[in-house]
Amino acid sequence: MELLAFALDFILHVDKHLESFVTSYGLWVYALLFLVIFVETGVVVMPFLPGDSLLFVVGAMCGVGLMSYPLSVGLLFAAATLGNQSNYAIGHYFGPRVFQWENSKFFNKNAFNQAHSFYEKYGGITIVAARFMPFMRTFAPFVAGVAKMTRAKFTLYDVTGGALWVGGIVTIGYFFGNIPFVKAHLDKIIWAMIFVPGLLVLLGALKARRKAAAT
């Protein structure tokens, strides 16, 4: 329970924790940020780390000169891209072994082929859009690997999505993160960044399910 309380406090007050770390450890903050973003995007069991809010706060700190904007964007883009590549590789390697292929009653060859076909046709937009959705961005590259989406196509959309996600949110934080109203309501903004994308995904899934049931 103490670990959960600390994690929740870190997520909701990431600005204070990060500012304290910058003050105490200087350049080591970049290594910490690289690690957090890499793990959040690269390890399928770590979807709860504060990706969006962390990028926003980093941008705000760049805006007041506490951190370097180009260095932050470059390092975090590398972390996000490499994290997705790691997640894809894990899914690509371990996915079929978990199901033990055709010898397992849990493996459905037809469902696997359909998943592969879906990711070849629509996986690109899924990989890009998932970058902006907590939890989804952790699982999407893993599923792409399990579904055997081709590496070249995955890499193209991985790089595109990573650039839009990191560059976009850090830049928004850079220009708007230090506005008094934003700073005063940062905890509410962080909650919105966590739950609004998830709610949109849920509503989309329900709509698709109703549409499928009606046909």
Unreliable sequence segments:
none
Helix proportion: over 70%
Distance between the termini: 46 Å
Instruction: Work out the number of β strands.
Output: 0
What is the alpha-carbon Rg in Å?
19 Å
Helix tally equals 10
Helix-strand string: HHHHHHHHHH
- Provide the domain count: 1
Q: Which secondary-structure class do the elements indicate?
A: mainly alpha
Question: Overall pLDDT, averaged?
Answer: 77
Portion in beta strands? under 5%
The global form is globular
Largest sheet, in brief, is:
none
Quick recap:
With 215 residues, the chain is mainly alpha-helical. The protein has helices spanning 2-12, 14-25, 28-42, 51-63, 69-99, 109-130, 136-146, 151-176, 180-184, 186-214. The longest helix is centred in the middle third of the chain and has 31 residues, at 69-99.
Task: Please explain how this structure is put together.
- It is globular and about 55 Å long.
- It has helices at residues 2-12, 14-25, 28-42, 51-63, 69-99, 109-130, 136-146, 151-176, 180-184, 186-214.
- The chain has one domain (2-214).
- Helix 2 (14-25) crosses helix 4 (51-63), helix 6 (109-130) runs antiparallel to helix 7 and helix 6 packs parallel to helix 8 (151-176).
- With 215 residues, the chain is an all-alpha fold.
Name its key features.
81% helix, mainly alpha, 215 residues, 0% strand
Compile the SSE list and pairings.
Blueprint: H1 2-12, H2 14-25, H3 28-42, H4 51-63, H5 69-99, H6 109-130, H7 136-146, H8 151-176, H9 180-184, H10 186-214
Helix pairs in contact: 2-4, 3-5, 4-8, 5-7, 5-8, 6-7, 6-8
